[in-house]
Every structure is written in structure tokens, then in C-alpha cells.
Amino acid sequence: MTPLSYALQRGTAMLMAPLIVIHLAVIIWAVQGGLSAEEILSRTRGSLPWGVFYGLFVLASAIHAGIGVQTILREWTPLGRLASANIGHGLIVVLWALGARAVYAVVWA
Amino acid sequence: MSAPERILQVDIRRGGEAGDYERFEVPERENQTVLDVVTYIQRHLDAALAYRFSCRVGVCGSCAMTVNGRPRWTCRTHVARVVRGGKLTLAPLANLPVIRDLVTDMTPFFEKWQAARGRFVPGDGPRGEMAAVSPGDKQRMAASDAIECINCGVCHAACDVVSWREDYLGPAALNRAWAAWNDVRDGDRNGILRAVTSGGGCHTCHTHQSCAEHCPVSLNPTFSIAGLKRESLKAKLRGELK
Ligand code: SF4
Ligand code: SF4
Ligand code: FES
Question: Do A6 and B161 touch (CB under 8 A)?
Fold first, then answer.
């Protein structure tokens, strides 16, 4: 890990901690008495706060997972620095794209 | 009538990289250390047994081995504390090449100290001018906390990350670099931060404290490494680490 990827790993972890707590708390609160797709979408459609919340969530988790996987590959497989980094960076892009698509679908689509 | 002599069953790993365990029987004594047991075997049972020691009082750091699965300094480890069911299993330190029997090749260990730039580099101030460092100075105290390392290699053997990544500098070398960085007289302190951030440097550490848990002189390399992570990030953000 370089000093910058270390800072990103720590920073995204710090950012995700409250986001995860809010995410779980809202799920638990919202499912009281059943929950339907319409109900969810009625809350998220056109909501800038939820768009920003999950936009950040997706970005932070993609970066955090990508750096983590890169480290694990380096330690547990014979892959070298470059190959591990490429896979890790690729994962960041893929996870971010999948997540961003989901956020787009529930907020703006 | 004296009590019958109790006998320790001691399994020692013999040979080089590929070796096997050999069983010895050693009479148990009061206040016996693991190093005493090995010395008894070498003097009375097998003169060819290779092991390393020097001071016998916990100063030189040369006697470390794997004792019942854990890296330990053997001259200060009492048999009574570690023996299990009358048995001791001794092997060379992990994470280092084996030369023979209980002797490891410490070269890669000390090469990492050099790679981490754990040595003093003088500044170019005028000769004879003494830097005044107060004993209560924050950096002086941080250096004091890290400086008492006896180079035994126990933490290096106890660190999983060292076993996973050949290029990881490891707890002892990084702890040494932290002591060196806290020496305000050093002429190239950013050079230390550059050395510990390239390749398998300080950011490779998982902060799981196995090194601190095993260090026989109760140093905390994890803490030193956290300091290096912090200071190298600051230096990076200030643009001093090119
Ligand atoms: S804290 Fe770091 S140096 Fe110490 S044992 Fe764990 S990974 Fe190794
Ligand atoms: S830090 Fe402790 S365990 Fe590691 S080499 Fe120094 S004295 Fe030995
Ligand atoms: S022989 Fe010197 S520390 Fe054990």
C-alpha cells in the first residue's frame, strides 16, 4: 500500500461507518409492518439526500473493497504488485459502476 | 530419600531447510531455562547440535527459537513456564532461512534493517556542534520507547505478514526506523520515510500486534509502525516524499 491508498482505505472506512449504521437503522425502521418496492421507490425517487447518501456509499465501498482485495491478492496469491493493483483498480470501477447504476435506478430513473 | 529425577522429552528439529525432529531425554532441574536444556543436549548427548547464544542474560538477542510453537528468547524462558506434559518442542525461528538445526540465517533480517534505513545519517552542520536534545522532548521519548530492541528476531518470526510477503520490512526493522526518525539530529529524516513507504513498507502492516505480544523486552513495534504511517502520510501531503 502506498501512503495515499492507505489514507483512502482509512478515509473510506471512516466514512462508511456512519453510513452503514444509518443504512441498517433505516432498513429496520422501514420494514416495520411490511415493505413493498413501491414504498421504497416513493421515498427514494427524486430525493437528492438519498441520491447523495447512496452515491457516497457506493463510491466509498467500491474504493475500500478494491484496495482491500488488492492487498489480499498480494498476500495470499503469487500475483505481483502490478497484477494485484490492476485487478484491485478494475474492481473499484466495476463495483462503482454497478452501484452507481443501482443508485440511478432508484433515485432518478 | 530424594525424589526420583524427572525427565523432559525434548523434540528438536534437526537438519537444514528439510529436516526432521529428533527426541532427546533431559533431566529436569529447578530454574532451568530452555537454553539450559539445549546446552545440556549439546554437551552430554549430541555435540553436533547447532544452536546460537551469547550473553545468556537477555541482552544480546541471539538465542531466539521456536519453543512449543511460539517464538521466544530461550535464555530467559523458564522450562517450567512453557513445558507441556513433560514435553518441549524446539525449532529454529520461523520466517528466516535455516542454516542447520536451531540456527537461522539472520542476513535477510538485517538486510531489512538497512532497507528501512534504520541507521543514523549525520547532518551537515559544523563539526563539534552538539545538538541539544532534552530528555523530556516528545521525539526523544518516542525514540527511547523504541530503542531498546535486542535484535532477537522474535517479532519477525511472529508476524504473519512477514510470512506472506517476502518484501515486507517487518516489525523490527520498522521499529528501528521509527527510533531513527525520532532522532532530530539525523540529516535525512525524510529519507527514512521514503525507505519505509516503498514496496513492502509500513503501510503493509495489519496492526494486529502479534509482534508486540511476543517481544521479550515488551517493545511495541505496532505503535512505532503506526507512527511511521502517520508521519509518512503527513510528509506526502506536504509534498516532501517524492
Ligand atoms: S502489527 Fe504489523 S508488524 Fe506487528 S505482527 Fe502485525 S502485521 Fe506484523
Ligand atoms: S522488537 Fe522486540 S521482538 Fe523484535 S527484534 Fe526487537 S527485541 Fe526482538
Ligand atoms: S543468549 Fe543473549 S539474549 Fe539469550
Answer: no
